[in-house]
């Protein structure tokens, strides 16, 4: 009896112990970030050391460009390989691809950075936005592929069979019936994957590198929110620290908004499936 | 099979092949780039402690030590907590609390590593430093607590890592617990078990899967980069002290790669990355194997349990 209540108390306490750091992190990011965040943060360039003010306009644009590049690379590959895994779920090749996706998902992001360095930076002899986008895209592919696969498997088999019975080819059945049925979920998955890679720092350190100036060139080094926060956080100046907190607030806001949107969307989907 | 369907299969299969190619290419490229270091140092790279870029002398032992020490420590802190959360959410908590709690624990995993690092530098490290300075001198003389009270060091890194791996381990353990057949629990209750005893029976039944979940967290901890880099102190010296600044494999790559001027230095760093890749691959595969063997064992049992119920209905 005593053992039993001790056990329940331990389990409840674990939940609290885990949520305390979450509350602490969010509290500090919001309270410190709000003080430093203003319109200039979004519209101005970083100021030289010693001058206060300034913003991260170049880093925000850089993060947008890199996540865009990553999406261009990862969305088609991820979705189509997800389709393969769900359509030919029982085959040995599908199992192998699934294993590769899970493996790639578990590869430390810093190692993905090394890989992008050897594939893109070394041949061009230059850090570039392309290399950063390649690194982030490589991380996105397995996430999108696995989400797509899981969501397609949820689509009732009768829908596919109906299309096939009407004489559709397999491709037609998949692209006009099965995929559209799962599309809201797949889009949610893509948004979550984008939020996740937008917060990555390690794979960008020696691929996209950093840039003090405003650049939209794909073949030049480019600044990103995360790398800029890293530079500022580990630097010695008060002003930099303030900017780092503001950057962190923007990053956390992106993540929070995406998670909430995804949660609402999944709930709606679940209700839809329950009805249908 | 129709010709067109064959085209569809080959077409989508080609995209799927890309995933396999990427994994293979990571292995091949990292091996190719680390050849100079492998040829020069061989196995002594993993046994020696000198890290002297100026003299071109590289030994990776301090980084391996730091990675293993921080990950094991983080696991010791995180595993019981993660398991407690999994049991609480899966078995104990009121249904209305379940979804919000799942959302909040998953939010822990969604916060970017760099934000944890920033928080670590400005909030956690000063707190750890305060603990260190307030510790009595008699304790400070123990090897576990020796060293300057910097705040930066092994303890701060392990704490941050623990926070970061809790959501992974707890969500997988929760899934594993959910896959325990209801018949198991019903049998326990039928034998007169209390709720606690029934949960204990379920945990015992799910043990392989839970070990897998813990290993998955371990794999995450091994490769975690930014947050650790920012709080561990980055000092390539082996120490057992929780307060000593140390270094990890991922951190040394993150810090020194852009500064590495010559080929041998770059190659040594890539070799560290290669080993990190291979080790996480093995740890993750093993953990998935454990989780999979657990669900494979559960599936037939669950099927066997259902038909009589249907007949009765």
Proportion of β residues of chain A?
Answer: under 5%
* Termini gap of chain A: 46 Å
Strand % of chain B is under 5%
> First CA to last CA of chain B: what distance?
41 Å
Helix content of chain B: over 70%
Instruction: Characterize the biggest β-sheet of chain B.
Output: 2 strands, antiparallel
Low-pLDDT residue intervals, each spanning 5 or more residues of chain A: none
Number of H- or I-type helical stretches of chain B = 12
How many helices of chain A? 10
Q: How many beta-strand segments of chain A?
A: 0
Architecture overview:
The complex is a heterodimer of chains A (276) and B (313). With 276 residues, chain A is mostly helical. Chain A has a single domain, classed as MetI-like (MetI-like fold). Chain A has helices at residues 2-36, 39-43, 57-87, 92-106, 109-124, 129-154, 157-165, 170-198, 225-234, 238-275. In chain A, helix 1 (2-36) crosses helix 10, helix 7 packs antiparallel against helix 8 and helix 9 (225-234) runs antiparallel to helix 10. In chain A, 48% of the residues are buried. Chain B has 313 residues and is an all-alpha fold. Chain B has one domain: MetI-like fold (Orthogonal Bundle), CATH 1.10.3720. In chain B, a hairpin with a 4-residue loop joins strand 1 and strand 2 (57-58). In chain B, helix 2 crosses helix 6 (154-178) and helix 11 (249-256) crosses helix 12 (263-312). The radius of gyration of chain B is 24 Å and the shape is globular. Chain B starts with a helix and ends with a helix. At the A-B interface, helix 1, helix 3, helix 4, helix 5 and helix 6 of A face helix 1, helix 2, helix 3, helix 4 and helix 6 of B.
Fill in the keyword field for this structure.
heterodimer, A: mainly alpha, MetI-like fold, 10 helices, globular, B: 313 residues, mainly alpha, 12 helices, 2 strands, 76% helix
Summarize the structure.
With 276 residues, chain A is an all-alpha fold. Helices cover 78% and strands 0% of the residues of chain A.
């Amino acid at each position: 009896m005593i053992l039993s209540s001790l056990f329940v108390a331990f389990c409840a306490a674990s939940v609290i112990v885990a949520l305390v750091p979450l509350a602490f992190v969010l509290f500090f990011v919001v309270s410190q970030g709000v003080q430093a965040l203003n319109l200039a943060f979004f519209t101005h360039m970083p100021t030289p050391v010693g001058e206060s003010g300034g913003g991260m306009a170049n880093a925000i644009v850089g993060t947008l460009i890199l996540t865009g590049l990553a999406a261009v690379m990862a969305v088609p590959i991820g979705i189509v390989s997800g389709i393969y895994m769900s359509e030919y779920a029982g085959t040995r090749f599908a199992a192998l691809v699934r294993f590769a996706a899970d493996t790639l998902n578990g590869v430390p992001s810093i190692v993905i950075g090394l890989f992008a360095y050897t594939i893109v930076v070394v041949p061009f002899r230059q850090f570039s936005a392309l290399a950063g986008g390649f690194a982030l895209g490589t991380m996105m592919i397995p996430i999108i592929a696995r989400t797509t696969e899981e969501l397609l498997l949820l689509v009732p088999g009768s829908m596919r069979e109906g299309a096939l019975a009407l004489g559709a080819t397999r491709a037609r059945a998949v692209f006009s019936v099965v995929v559209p049925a799962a599309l809201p979920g797949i889009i949610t998955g893509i948004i979550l994957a984008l939020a996740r890679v937008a917060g990555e720092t390690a794979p960008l350190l020696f691929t996209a590198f950093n840039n003090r100036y405003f650049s939209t060139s794909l073949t030049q080094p480019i600044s990103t929110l995360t790398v800029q926060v890293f530079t500022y956080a580990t630097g010695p100046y008060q002003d930099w620290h303030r900017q780092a907190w503001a950057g962190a607030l923007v990053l956390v806001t992106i993540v929070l908004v995406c998670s909430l949107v995804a949660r609402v969307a999944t709930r709606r989907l679940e209700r839809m499936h329950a009805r249908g | 099979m129709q010709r067109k369907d064959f085209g569809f299969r080959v077409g989508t299969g080609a995209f799927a092949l890309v995933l396999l190619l990427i994994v293979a290419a990571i292995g091949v490229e990292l091996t190719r780039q680390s050849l100079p270091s492998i040829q020069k140092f061989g196995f002594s790279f993993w046994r020696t402690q000198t890290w002297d870029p100026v003299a071109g002398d590289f030994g990776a032992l301090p980084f391996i030590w730091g990675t293993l020490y921080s990950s094991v420590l983080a696991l010791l802190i995180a595993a019981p907590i993660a398991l407690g959360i999994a049991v609480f959410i899966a078995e104990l908590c009121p249904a209305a609390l379940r979804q919000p709690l799942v959302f909040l624990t998953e939010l822990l995993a969604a916060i970017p590593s760099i934000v944890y690092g920033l928080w670590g530098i400005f909030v956690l490290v000063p707190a750890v430093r305060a603990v260190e300075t307030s510790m009595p001198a008699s304790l400070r003389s123990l090897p576990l607590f020796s060293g300057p009270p910097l705040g930066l060091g092994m303890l701060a890194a392990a704490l941050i890592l623990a926070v970061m791996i809790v959501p992974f381990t707890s969500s997988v353990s929760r899934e594993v617990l959910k896959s325990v057949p209801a018949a198991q629990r019903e049998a326990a209750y039928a034998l007169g078990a209390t709720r606690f005893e029934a949960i204990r029976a379920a945990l015992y039944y799910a043990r392989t899967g839970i070990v897998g979940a813990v290993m998955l967290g371990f794999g995450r901890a091994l490769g975690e980069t930014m947050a650790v880099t920012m709080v561990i102190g980055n000092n390539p010296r082996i120490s057992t002290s929780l307060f000593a600044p140390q270094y990890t494999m991922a951190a040394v790559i993150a810090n020194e790669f852009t500064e590495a001027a010559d080929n041998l230095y770059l190659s040594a760093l890539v070799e560290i990355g290669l080993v990190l890749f291979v080790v996480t691959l093995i740890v993750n595969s093993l953990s998935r194997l454990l989780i999979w063997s657990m669900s494979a064992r559960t599936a037939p049992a669950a099927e066997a349990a259902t038909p009589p119920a249907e007949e009765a209905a």
